[in-house]
Structure formats: C-alpha cells, structure tokens
Design brief:
single chain, about 180 residues, alpha/beta, 4-stranded parallel sheet, 4-stranded antiparallel sheet, about 30% helix, about 20% strand
C-alpha cells in the first residue's frame, strides 16, 4: 500500500500511545553508527515522519532522521559543518529514501540529500506519501519506490521498479543488493 498522511498520522499516534521515545539522540557524531536507510524529508512533515519512523522500527529497520539521531544540529544556524554531518550520515547508511510530499518539493535540502545519496549508493528510492506527481521533479521517476504492507505477524517495506511495477523486492533484500524482480 502506498502510505498516505492518514496512515502516517495514525502510526504517529500509535507510537505516542505505546510510549515510544523519539529522543534516541547521539550527542556527538559517532562515525561507527550505521543505518539501514537515510530518510530525506522536509521538517515540515515532522508528524508524518514520526509515524514513518515508527513503521520502520516495527519492521526492524534502523533509519536515520536528523532531528532524532542528531538533535544537537541547530536548524537556525546551518553551516557547512551541518552539511558535512549529513553527508557522513548518508555515507554511514546502506541506502536512502526520499520522502515525496508537497513540502519536500520546496525543500532546499531534500534534492541535495537525494543527489548526494545517489552519488554514494546504488540504493536510493522514493517513498511517495500521497498521490504525487513529479511535475518539476521528473528525475524522481528514475528511482524505485517504497510501499508498506502489513501482513499477519509481519510488517515489511517493498521496493518496486517504477518502469515495471511487476518487479519488486523486500527492502531488506534490496539493501543487501537484490534488484527488484518478478515474483
């Protein structure tokens, strides 16, 4: 299923009700810290990303979200050091997911993070959170996309080939090098 705002807001409420803390902050950059996915998103979508963080965690993925993992970064005083930290976090991730929302289309950071990720990894995908057209960002059509599915006893993200939607792989397999293929 393609995630939408309603599903992500519901997941954020579920996380809040289960008393999960989103203060897993690492006070200083730890070069040894590794992640499954770097999550490129607009901070304006913080509530949606909180729900997404919860879904990824339930599915067993470790994802990097700047305001959770590096809460010491100051959004009011962005410097080249900020960009260097983000770049190191992208490098310490197996892949990246660009969260496609109306807000990410106006972000200055999201396209930069996507480009840096694409240059470093063979594992970059998009996660459309709504019926999303790529008008003005047609390059997003180059990347596979993520969907989320709940099946009894399992929560999993799936990577789909945008050119041939009958080809897909689990996110876990894709991060290990599997290409989307026919099942």
């Amino acid at each position: 299923m393609i995630l939408n705002e309603r599903i992500l807001r519901q997941a954020a409420l579920e996380a809040q009700r289960s008393y999960e803390s989103y203060s897993y902050s690492i006070p200083h950059f730890d070069a040894a810290e590794n992640y499954d996915l770097f999550i490129s998103h607009s901070f304006k979508d913080k509530n949606l990303v909180t729900g997404l963080y919860h879904l990824f965690s339930k599915a067993g993925y470790k994802v990097y979200i700047d305001w959770i993992d590096d809460s010491n970064l100051d959004r009011k005083s962005v410097t080249p050091d900020t960009a260097a930290i983000i770049k190191r976090r992208i490098k310490s991730s197996k892949g990246a997911a660009y969260i496609a929302t109306a807000n990410s289309t106006t972000s200055k950071w999201c396209p930069w993070e996507l480009g840096v990720s694409d240059g470093m990894h063979d594992r970059v995908c998009i996660l459309p959170v709504m019926d999303y057209s790529f008008k003005g960002q047609e390059y997003l059509g180059l990347y596979p996309y993520l969907e989320y599915d709940r099946v009894p006893g399992q929560n999993e993200f799936w990577v789909y080939d945008q050119q041939d939607k009958t080809k897909y792989a689990t996110l876990r397999g894709w991060l290990k090098g599997s290409k989307p293929h026919y099942y």
